[in-house]
Amino acid sequence: MVDDLARHGRPYERRRTPPEHVTGSSGPLLEAQCVGRTFGARVALIDIDLRVRAGDSVALVGPNGAGKSTLLSLLAGALSPTSGRLVHRGPGREIGWVPQRPAIYSRLSALENLEHFARLERVASPAERARRLLEIVEVSADPIAAGTLSSGNQQRLNLAIALLADPEVLLLDEPTASLDPRQRRRFWQLAHALPERGGAIVFATQHLVEVDEHASDVLLLEAGRSAFSGTVADWQSSAAIEGLR
User: Fold this and answer.
1) What is the end-to-end Cα distance of the chain in Å, rounded?
2) Which of 163, 162, 205 is nearest to 184 (CA)?
3) Which has fewest Cβ within 10 Å: 19, 78, 103, 115?
């Protein structure tokens, strides 16, 4: 295991700067206040406002390069904003993040990956938690390298890693892109369990049907700016949707 970690990097052990934590249970669980991000001379996001409340399922939509993944990286703490403020008002729980590409150790099995990250997160009974999550996401605990799993199974393993610390907000970057229809249905069943028990999810997607079926609110990004922000009902009657069809 040590050799594998040395050869293949540390996908989930990179330094993260979490959003500012504010005690108390009132207000949104997670909030971006006039957030901007630049990469040298390139402007990725400009003055983005987002409020994620308990029970929300927020869809981030927009063309490729609009800033969806950058915003999720900021909310996850993987990037720091160049301007503005990020605030997490949750009761001390974690923010789970499922990036677009699976971040796993390819030579470890699915079970070994989960047990490793469970120990990093200081999860109680890491072996038991790992096996339970594999059952939930329907990934085999057999001792085969995770790098040999199908892309769909790797993405579901990615989800299990994000769920290890029992987050109250789950960030999903085009999570169903590599899943077949059955796997997509199962994925959304798992994801919706979080808002149903008082948490929230924020997901980027290119599939407008996923917005209609799974979102309570929508943020449309265009060239790093907010072009629409509102409820899914307002989105469905808005002219903004026509540019994406």
Assistant:
1) 47
2) 205
3) 78
